[in-house]
Amino acid sequence: MEREKGPGSYLFRGGRVIDPTHEIDLCADVLILNGQLAEIRPRIELGADKGAEVREIDVSGKWIVPGLIDMHVHLREPGQEYKETIASGTSAAVAGGYTSVACMPNTSPVNDCAAVTQFILQRAREEGSCRVFPVGSISKGLLGENLSEFGELKDAGAVAVSDDGRPVMNSLMMRRALEYAGAFDLLVISHAEDLQLSEGGLMNEGPVSTLLGLRGIPGVAEEAMVARDLLLAEWTRSRIHIAHVSSAGSVRLIREAKRRGVMVTAETAPHYFTLTDEAILSFDPVFKVNPPLRRTEDVRAVKTALADGTIDAIATDHAPHSVIEKDIEFEFAANGIIGLESALPLILELVREGTLSPSDAVAKVSTNPARILGLPLGTLARGNPVDMTILDPDEIYRLTPETLRSKGCNCPFLGKDLQGRAVMTFVRGIVAYSRLDS
């Protein structure tokens, strides 16, 4: 189905409607009129005046949920359009069920000023398939030397600040960033890594790195900075969000901080609850990420943290690279994998194995990211242009390079049978992606 030119009217019959915000989980009909959510009821009967203009679709066995939100992606534009563009990245997003993405600032030039933020938003309006929320940089040029102008970034449309890709090594600067961001109600997103501890590392430090003879990155390289940033957030009474949590030690620190009342939220990515460092026995650079894939006990801790709420959100950390950076020797390959088109089946596996309930899983990728970023999204609200995802939790399919919409092919799940996928994605009341006609 081609993308709609404007809002349409639909009656979806018999789907499982899940909206954690309103504690809804029931089989019902959903009526959309001119792109706006009109009704959710067990049975909706259309009058003769409406029936002719409304398209009815049977979605029995499928889930109808608020539009998915990925709060951590790399769209590469401006500056690295050969890896990804806003057009290709958002096309991949809607195919994966995402209606909104927050893009990190490590572009070229860095998103450290209003001009770059405005450029991203303009490109998203012109070519984007979903909502795009820019994240500005904490420091000018990601150099960790001078703070960016947070007020200017906020006024231009930034929803948070982060030096993602590089940590803020200077503790005083991180303290000032937390204080400064609070004045503008901007979230600070921490890339937690001690560069002295991780310097030269290629993978997680442990038995596998020893076996392979590769220099390791110890878990404490992440955990030391998580501890520092939690203490700074506590001292300044500021909000902090910990990105891409990968280790059991980080989980423990965040859990303890939440118990103390620290205003911390956290995310992880699907590869941190599905893969371990043993994948690198293949020497395949597709598995090279930062933070690195860790041990089985870390995967177990991340799953437990998702189940008990210590980790609030699941983000993809979608990081497309070309073969120039990725299909080379492991030592020289770039860090990162793509995730927008493979995340949903991996998240649904958490439901199938009993780690998360369906409602909790939806909250991790919709309601909670919206709350953390302060977005009026993540719920099925009547009367508004609808952001909504319809997914089939049971469909089994194979992800291939030919089916990817992202420019990147650096995905460890290519060629594997996956279960669960988006079949229809509404953005601002318009169908941005649909497989229901195919």
**CATH H level, superfamily name of the largest domain:** Metal-dependent hydrolases
CATH architecture tag of the largest domain: Alpha-Beta Barrel
- Provide a count of the helices: 13
Major sheet details = 8 strands, mixed
The quaternary organization reads as single chain
The coarse silhouette is globular
Question: What is the count of distinct domains?
Answer: 2
Overall pLDDT level: 96
Output the CATH topology of the largest domain.
TIM Barrel
Low-confidence stretches: none
Strand content: 15-25%
Q: Which CATH class of the largest domain? A: Alpha Beta
Helix/strand/pairing category: alpha/beta
Helix content: 25-40%
Distance between the termini: 7 Å
CA gyration radius, whole angstroms = 21 Å
Write structural notes for this entry:
It is a single chain. The protein has 438 residues and is of the alpha/beta class. The chain has 2 domains: 10-64 and 383-434, Urease, subunit C, domain 1, CATH 2.30.40.10; 67-373, TIM Barrel (Alpha-Beta Barrel), CATH 3.20.20.140. The protein contains 13 helices and 18 strands. It has helices spanning 48-51, 86-95, 114-127, 150-156, 171-183, 195-198, 207-212, 219-236, 248-260, 296-308, 323-326, 343-352, 358-373, and strands at residues 10-19, 24-33, 36-41, 55-58, 63-66, 68-73, 98-103, 131-136, 160-162, 187-190, 203-204, 216-217, 240-242, 264-268, 313-314, 388-398, 417-427, 430-434. The strands form 3 sheets. Strands 1, 2, 3, 4, 5, 16, 17 and 18 form an 8-stranded mixed beta sheet that branches. An 8-stranded parallel beta sheet has the order 6-7-8-9-10-13-14-15. Strands 11-12 form a two-stranded parallel sheet. β8 (131-136), α4 and β9 (160-162) form a beta-alpha-beta unit. α9 packs parallel to α10. The longest helix is centred in the middle third of the chain and has 18 residues, at 219-236. It is globular. 55% of the residues are buried. The mean pLDDT is 96.
